[in-house]
Amino acid sequence: MNIHKNIQLKFYDYLTSDISEIERVEIEQHLSSCPLCSQEYQEFKTFFESSKIYCKNPTEELSDEYWMNFIDNVDNRINSLTKYKITRKSWLQSIFTLFRLYPKMSFALGVSFLIIISTVLILSIRKNEPAQTVENLPAMVSSHVNVDERVGQYLKKSKVLLVSLSNMESDNTLTDNLSTEQTISRQLVNEAEFLKMQPIDFQAKRLIRDLVKIQEQLATTDIQNSETAFHSIRRRIYENNLLFKVRMAESIYGGVKFASTSMQRGGDDK
Amino acid sequence: MNAPDEHEIILRARQGDHGAFRILVERYMKHAYNIAYGFVNNHIDAHDIAQESFVKVYQSLNGFRGDSNFNTWLYRIVANLSLNRLRQKKVNRSLSIDTMNEMMLPCAVMPDDGSRSEIRNSLERALHELPTLQRAVVILRHFNGLSTKEVSKILHCSEGTVKTHLHRGLKKMKEKVSFLKDEVV
Questions:
Q1: Which residues of A fall within a CB distance of 8 Å from B46?
Q2: Domain containing B49: what range?
């Protein structure tokens, strides 16, 4: 650092005597040999003294009463803060006191409060749930539609089987190969087992039961070696008027309920 | 009252002795006020800052570890609050110049003759035109008589920095109020 600047930085401490003896001697020696720093020192000293004279202490301009009030004002500020804290504390304390003095009533109040809160929570959660399970509805309908379709398919196949059996010449019975009809009969019996378990009309179930009797007989009997068994099947078809019933049911069953009146009439025809 | 006594007073105040706290307020209120006034240059804010400083001291007295002197800790609070107030005023700019002049009122409290109050106003203006740190050093060291060490602790800077800022600050003020050279007898 420049020697002059270094000396000038120490002017304040020199003026306030806040300096070591070595530094004091150093400054005095420099000032005696350096006219620039000496002049700078004189100006600095003048300003130092005059600024202290003119800038009086502002507290000296205030009365003793002011300072007494100052202490009281600080007290008031602190008290207002303390009161605020006490108010918060007393609010909590009053709740605890209430619990201590009236435990039953407080318990009842607490339980009621919890019930109200939980009810509100449950209601709000339910509100947020999607309205009914709309997404599941098509699946249910489709499964129901599938059952109806399967009933329709069953009736259609059964009709074909009954027609083929009805149209078969009795003379050719023993020569014709009925293995296809028997295979289909077994399949239809299995399908009927499934349909019996489904929620379908009573009339439809009764028709399926009648058809199953014929299909089981056809599937299990060695028709090619037993002409009487074949005639028995055909007779049952005619006697029960099954072809008519199946046609009627088939015309209606396609996802719609079974026509009980038609079936009833068909049953009456018997 | 010597240092051990002050330590005892602080201990009593920490234990909730309100009388002990009043002694601390009484002892340091003028210093606190002077420092605040040096920064804000008006009695209203100086009064408010000085009181707020003591409230803060009361609130955080339990956290005072005694690493530094009590007065250094208090003056640091005063200086911080004063600087915050000045920043707020800078942002708000709500006071007009006329109002500011009215509030710079030492002469209103104690009447002076014209030239004295003019010089005083010039000095105050020169002081408040200094950069913040220079002004703080001049206020604490020159106008409030704190030692270089105390000022360095309050402003969290080295003693060398305090000396440099003090010299530069006073030099700038001297240049701005050059007519003082002729006034002094």
A1: 58
A2: 1-104
pTM of the model: 0.53
Of A12, A29, A54, the residue at which a domain comes to its end is A54
Both B73 and B52 in one domain: the answer is: yes
- State the distance between the two ends of chain B, measured CA to CA, in whole angstroms: 38
Specify if A106 maps to a domain: yes
Instruction: Judge if B185 and B126 occupy the same domain.
Output: yes
Residue A76: band (very low, low, confident or very high) from pLDDT cuts 50, 70, 90: confident
| CB-based contact A51 B170, cutoff 8 Å | yes
ipTM of the complex: 0.74
Instruction: Tell me which of A77 and A52 has the higher pLDDT.
Output: A77
Q: Which of A4, A7, A54 to mutate to probe the B interface, most B CBs <10 Å?
A: A54
For residue B55, the chain A residues in CB contact (below 8 A) are: 74, 77-78, 81
Claim to verify: residue B17 and residue B88 sit in the same structural domain: yes
Looking at the partner chain, which of B22, B25, B166 has a beta carbon nearest the beta carbon of A12? B166
Distance CA A175, CA A171 (A): 8
Cβ within 8 Å, pair A71-B22: yes
